[in-house]
Structures are given as structure tokens and as C-alpha cells.
Design brief:
Among the domains are: 148 residues, Up-down Bundle (Glycosyl hydrolase family fold), CATH 1.20.1610.10; 70 residues, Sandwich (Immunoglobulin-like); 152 residues, Jelly Rolls, CATH 2.60.120.1190. Helix content is 16%, strand content 32%. The strands form nine sheets. Strands 26, 27, 28, 29, 30, 31 and 32 form a seven-stranded antiparallel beta sheet that branches. Strands 18, 20, 21, 23, 24 and 25 form a six-stranded mixed beta sheet that branches. The chain has a five-stranded mixed beta sheet with strand order 11-12-16-13-14. Strand 13 and strand 14 form a beta hairpin. The longest helix has 22 residues. It is globular. The two termini are 39 Å apart.
Length: 533
């Protein structure tokens, strides 16, 4: 609420939560409007636009914001903890309450149309975490998971209803079957069936809570809805066949219907909707006056600025550039609680500082964002002899010495994860020093296949070649636990050394009692921050 989005470091699945909360808030705003509560209407209409703060204009996707930087390295195909059972392809068009606003954010109607084309023609493979919910794919459109369900109908909003008709028919006929496994994903409270029922009738509620249904392509020659007051609404598709799924023309109660959407009251009043079907795309519903629109027009928000380049943790110095999706807005920043200054050029820093930013336009001001930058001792370096998983990279090569510590939720971007691999890390202090303590943290979250290592060994050296072990700590990693717990492994010593090596042994196969065991599940090690005194 304070910054206008869910930050990666605060909550897991931050992109999905920000986008879905924004839609939820829009529905609250609609209720408040009907009730005449102008204060609540304004508050939640503003919050319904927070989805805009997740849009990275340089990638064209909804992306996580980690300490106000864009989470990276970014791969739209990667399934990771920024999205709920999905990736950036499958969430970046989730703003059903404000499709016109989304279109403007992306750069216009042509950009949205191009994104849709790329979505449905993209390769089907994903990267990152294996996710069983990602099923029923057409390109990167995932019919087996609900956040994608409105996307085929978005072509109507860009004057291309024939593409909606084509893709809807493909989904109806290839991703459903009259068999025990006849739906292409988890039914999830009836949503898979609801999509089929609506779409087979020929229309779908892209924005539940509005009074519009977007027209697709009917599956049956004739279907009748009997309403509660005994009125009937009939959909008739003349000439329909396996090849004739394009709409040539339409009438509603005998009058020409040339728009590609219906109003709720047109259905509940009863009547007859007649489609004339053909085997080729037509010009029906393609004019600007004939396309649907969902748009938030009142109480427009000012988007929050972001850190476009520069690293949160650095050694010598870093150059910070700021950006904001609204290029007409000015950006202001302060350093270490100083006066705010208008941003004009890159900010060079060489020490740990706190930078605050906000955007301003025509007297309107965004939320104030704070980012703590950490300077790593430039004499200290780390070598990772085993490779971390890309989707759990934290800040990358220096994550274990960057000063940013992971919390109990492994999905908040600070933990570094190793799948079915040991941890083998070597810290170079830059010179021989007196060492009294070496400490590192490990996370246990067994429900997510994250286990403590079975043992941790610490070795030290003056020359980086001849290492001496100062201790081995064994851990009962296979002991069942339902809790997320952080364990600090500490080695005490009183010796001189320049190099410190930590070796943590992965459990390997998950224990027989674990739900992943029948599937040859492998354990993860999650570690963060090697501290040397």
C-alpha cells in the first residue's frame, strides 16, 4: 500500500500478488461506487492501478522488483518465485480491470497485439522450476492454469476478433476431451469447466465484475440458457462446422450486432443471438467503435520510479540510473536522509548509502521508495566451485558476502539455492588476518524440498593451496520437520588465514518419508551470508 507494489524481498510470488490484488481492489472500488462511498472508491481505484508498477518498459514484461531494482537475470520463460505457478509470459497480461491502461503502458494497441502473437507462437518449453500446473500449452499460453484464461479474448480489444475466434476454437477442440482426463489442468473450483461452458456458448467474461462478455466462437449450432425467471437466451450459429468457426455477421433479436461483445443485461433480458459462420476471417467487429474496452479513467496514479542500472551490493563503486515508466514524470532522490534533489544524471556512489526516490508530475507525487546500498570490502572476494540454480541466484556471484541476509521465506530473493549439489565456496580476505569466527546460515523448508546439509566443513589457508580443516559439523538433515527454520553454523578458531573454504554436503535423494521420494526427488541446499570475524 505504501509503495504501490509487493516487493520481492517482502513477499514471495510478488508479481502475481500485485497483479491479482489490483484486480481485487478494482472489484472493491466498483462496490464502493455503487454504495456512494467516494473515499473508498478513490482509494481502491488507485490501488487497482498498482499493476502498472510491475511493468518493466525495457523488457515488456511484468517483472519482480528486488530492492527497487528489476529482478534478474530475467528470462520470461523462467518459472520462479516471483510468479504463482507460472512465468512472466503467463502473468504479464493480467490486468483485466484496465486493459486499455495495460495497452497504453505497453506502448499502444500494436504492441499488445504483437505481444499476443508472440505469446501464442512462443516455444512451449519453460526454464527454472518444474511446475506441474503448467499444462495445456499453445506457445506460452497455459490453459491448465487460470491466469491465462482471458488472454485468447484480448485480440478483440486490438481489432482482431478473428484471432480470438481461431484460438478459442483451438482450445475448445484440442484441450478438452470427453474422458476421465478430459481437462488440460487442475479444475480448481470449476474454472476449467466454466471456461468451456462460457466459450462453447460463444462469449466469456474477461472482466468479472463488469457488464461485458467478450464474443469468441460458439461451438454448437444452437444452445439455450434458461434463466431464473424462465426467460431464455438462445445462441444460434448458422453454418457452423469444424472449419466454419469465424463469424461473418451477427444479429441480436433481429437487429444487426456488429460489436464483438455483449452486455450482461442483453443476456438476462432473454432473446436470440444469431451468428452467421464462415471459414475465413471477416471484417466483423474490427472497427474501433465495435471493440470492447475496460478502462480505469478516474483517479489516475503516478507510477513509482525504479533503479534501471547499478548494483545494490558493490565493491569499489557503482553508478545508479533511475527510471520511471511515465517518461513525462520527474524523479527526485535523496541520499542518507538528505534533501531531495531532482534526478538529472547517473548517481555515483562509493560507500554504503540509503537512497530514497519518488516521481512527480503536475503536482502529483508517487510513493517514496527506499533502497539500501551495501559496499562490500573490495579486498574480499569469493569463488564458488559449485554452480547455484539460476532461479535462486540471489544477487549472483557475491551473494554470500553481499551483506543482504535471507529471511524465513526462501522465495524473497536473498537465498542462494543449490539443487542436488554440494556447496563449495572459498572466500579470499585479501591478506592474512586473525580469524576468531566463521559463520554461515542454512535454511530448512522440507515441504519445498529444502534440507540442511548433512555436514559442513570449514577449512582455512594462508596461501590458498594448503588448507587445514578447523572443524566438521554433522547435521541430521533427514529428520522430519514442518517448519521453516534458519540454522547458523558457527566455527570458532584463533588462527591466521587469508582463505576460508566452506563445504556443505547435500542430502541428495530426499528421505523415504518425503512426498518427493516416489519421484526420485533431490534435495536443495539454501545458504546465505558467510560472515568472518
Amino acid at each position: 500500500k505504501d509503495v504501490g507494489f509487493v516487493p520481492v524481498e517482502m513477499e514471495s510470488e510478488s508479481v502475481s500478488k500485485t497483479l491479482e490484488y489490483a484486480y481485487d481492489d478494482w472489484t472493491i472500488a466498483q462496490m464502493a461506487d455503487k454504495m456512494g462511498n467516494t473515499g473508498v472508491f478513490k482509494q481502491f481505484t488507485e490501488r487497482a492501478q498498482y499493476y502498472k508498477n510491475m511493468y518493466n518498459p525495457s523488457t515488456g514484461f511484468m517483472q519482480g522488483r528486488f530492492n527497487n531494482t528489476w529482478f534478474g537475470p530475467f528470462d520470461p520463460y523462467e518459472v520462479n518465485f516471483n510468479y504463482t505457478e507460472a512465468n512472466a509470459w503467463q502473468y504479464s497480461l493480467y490486468a483485466p480491470q484496465d486493459i486499455s491502461g495495460l495497452m497504453q503502458l505497453m506502448g499502444g494497441k500494436a504492441r499488445l497485439a504483437k505481444h499476443l502473437d508472440n505469446l501464442f507462437s512462443a516455444k512451449q518449453e519453460t526454464s527454472g522450476r518444474k511446475q506441474p500446473d503448467i499444462t495445456g500449452l499453445i506457445g506460452q499460453y497455459v490453459h491448465g492454469n487460470e491466469p491465462s484464461h482471458h488472454m485468447a479474448y484480448l485480440y478483440n480489444f486490438v481489432n482482431r476478433p478473428s484471432d480470438t475466434q481461431r484460438i478459442v476454437r483451438e482450445i475448445l477442440t484440442t484441450l478438452y476431451a470427453n474422458a476421465p482426463d478430459g481437462v488440460s489442468g487442475n479444475e480448481d473450483c470449476g474454472q476449467m469447466s466454466a471456461w468451456y461452458v462460457f466459450s462453447s456458448l460463444g462469449f466469456y467474461p474477461v472482466t468479472p465484475g463488469s457488464n461485458q462478455y467478450i464474443i469468441g466462437s460458439p461451438l454448437f449450432e444452437k444452445a439455450t440458457i434458461t434463466l431464473e425467471d424462465s426467460k431464455q437466451f438462445t445462441v444460434q450459429a448458422n453454418g457452423i462446422s469444424a472449419k466454419n468457426f469465424y463469424i461473418k455477421s451477427a444479429t441480436l433479436n433481429g437487429k444487426v450486432l456488429d460489436r464483438s461483445y455483449l452486455y450482461h443485461q442483453e443476456i438476462t433480458s432473454g432473446g436470440t443471438l444469431v451468428f452467421e459462420m464462415t471459414n475465413t476471417p471477416s471484417a466483423w467487429g474490427t472497427k474501433d467503435s465495435q471493440i470492447p474496452s475496460t478502462q480505469i479513467q478516474e483517479h489516475q496514479i503516478l507510477l513509482t520510479p525504479f533503479i534501471a542500472s547499478g548494483t545494490v551490493s558493490f565493491k569499489q563503486s557503482t553508478s545508479i540510473t533511475l527510471g520511471v515508466a511515465d517518461t513525462d514524470a520527474d524523479i527526485y532522490y535523496s541520499i542518507d536522509e538528505g534533501e531531495f534533489t531532482k534526478y538529472e544524471a547517473a548517481i555515483a556512489i562509493s560507500e554504503s548509502v540509503l537512497i530514497k526516490t519518488y516521481a512527480q508530475k503536475q503536482g502529483k507525487k508517487s510513493g517514496v521508495l527506499s533502497t539500501q546500498f551495501f559496499k562490500i570490502d573490495p579486498n574480499v572476494s569469493i569463488t564458488l566451485n559449485t554452480q547455484y540454480a539460476n532461479e535462486y541466484s540471489a544477487s549472483g556471484e557475491n551473494a554470500l558476502i553481499d551483506g543482504i541476509k535471507g529471511a524465513l521465506d526462501f522465495r524473497t530473493g536473498a537465498w542462494q539455492g543449490y539443487s542436488d549439489k554440494d556447496l563449495d565456496a572459498e572466500v579470499n580476505l585479501g591478506s592474512v588476518q586473525n580469524i576468531s569466527e566463521i559463520k554461515t546460515n542454512f535454511l530448512q523448508e522440507q515441504r519445498s524440498w529444502i534440507f540442511y546439509p548433512t555436514q559442513v566443513e570449514c577449512l582455512i589457508s594462508k596461501d590458498g593451496k594448503n588448507f587445514t580443516s578447523i572443524g566438521v559439523q554433522k547435521i541430521d538433515a533427514a529428520k522430519p520437520s514442518q517448519d521453516a527454520v534458519i540454522k547458523s553454523v558457527v566455527f570458532k578458531t584463533n588462527q591466521k588465514a587469508q582463505f576460508v573454504k566452506l563445504k556443505a554436503t547435500n542430502l541428495g535423494d530426499v528421505p523415504p518419508w518425503h512426498l518427493g521420494h516416489p519421484f526420485d526427488g533431490k534435495a536443495w541446499i539454501f545458504t546465505d551470508e558467510i560472515e568472518i570475524k
